[in-house]
Amino acid sequence: MERGNTKQEILEAALEMFSVQGFEATSISQIASAVGIRKASLYSHFENKQAILDELVKEVLGQYETHSIFAKTDWGKDNDNLPLTPDDAVKMIGGQIRYLLHDPAISRARKMLVIEQFQNRSLAKLQTKQNYSDVLGYFTGLIKCLIQKGVLAEDDPEIMAAQFCLPISVWINLCDREPERETEVMELVDKHIRQFFRLYQQSGR
Amino acid sequence: MERGNTKQEILEAALEMFSVQGFEATSISQIASAVGIRKASLYSHFENKQAILDELVKEVLGQYETHSIFAKTDWGKDNDNLPLTPDDAVKMIGGQIRYLLHDPAISRARKMLVIEQFQNRSLAKLQTKQNYSDVLGYFTGLIKCLIQKGVLAEDDPEIMAAQFCLPISVWINLCDREPERETEVMELVDKHIRQFFRLYQQSGR
DNA sequence: GTCTATATCCAGATAGAC
DNA sequence: GTCTATCTGGATATAGAC
Lengths: 205, 205
What we know:
Oligomer: homodimer
Number of domains of chain A: 2
Structural class of chain A: mainly alpha
Largest interface: A-B, 43 and 43 residues
Number of helices of chain A: 10
Largest sheet of chain A: none
């Protein structure tokens, strides 16, 4: 470390605390002492407490747009790494879940949005976008491709996507709350994906 | 009103605020003024702020055990009002969702648990029990009955239950966050239930 | 049971030396 | 940029009159 990145350290410490206690319950002194400075020094980097949250939402959560696979919805041509078999799907989704669960910034941002969703209208919208609409849109596109390729039977793709990814959303939230249940959850995910494929293959016959 | 129920009014006001702002961000004065008394008077009813939360968890959330249909899991004999058709299921589940969404105590308790789930280990456990395990157990039992009756095809009942009720959980949470989307959500629920039945009927042929 | 008054503490935020 | 010192307000909680 050795300075220069103090502002970044503040953002990281703040996110860590906001994601457990929430914004209101986290004090400036707490954040400052986690970074190793006095609370007064923190005001050299941010105008006030709210500015920390604003910056977090803008930067840390904003990098979602550039990095998250769910933010892009162009399932047009690049059907290269499409999961055509249950095994592929389990591998792909399993890896994705593990990444979402263990990346500190991502998991903390997700938890913070859960905590603050009823408090703040704009955070509610962000929560819906990142952890519902975009995910649903992503899987709707993927499933449309799989239908077109004849891998899955024809049916309402949006409902199929919901049936596929919303249980997984709930299981991710369960792991956020009780991390020790991760292996149990991963087994459920495995069974769920295979059953989903089996089902929507059969019915298309 | 006219007194005598001040303690109850305090609990209700507190739950209303805890369910939006969270416990830490809600002050004693806020609760007191919502009830129409001074903050000092509140200490005649509760030893301290924590005692309000404890009582809420014990009483208001505890009445879940006696009133919620999800708390009972005996699908043994009383297969009277079993939803045998998609229409029945849509009607039954739709009514249940509307009840869960609009009953003030239930919806506030649910939101409070969402907000406090990462803060407090025992509230995390309660959240998992009430809004995950019990619901999953309830629908696993129901689905087992429907399989036995030949209404649905044979498959892993726990996974079927997850595919059935976890999307609905997510949609309820979406309505908690953005109540104006209720009708849109109810249409999704309708389509989801019919597609679920159609699917698991077909595959059993 | 409710009130006013008060004690104590800690929050967010600013001033100014180094 | 970080510090000490300080301001101001609001928090939880208690004491004691009515």
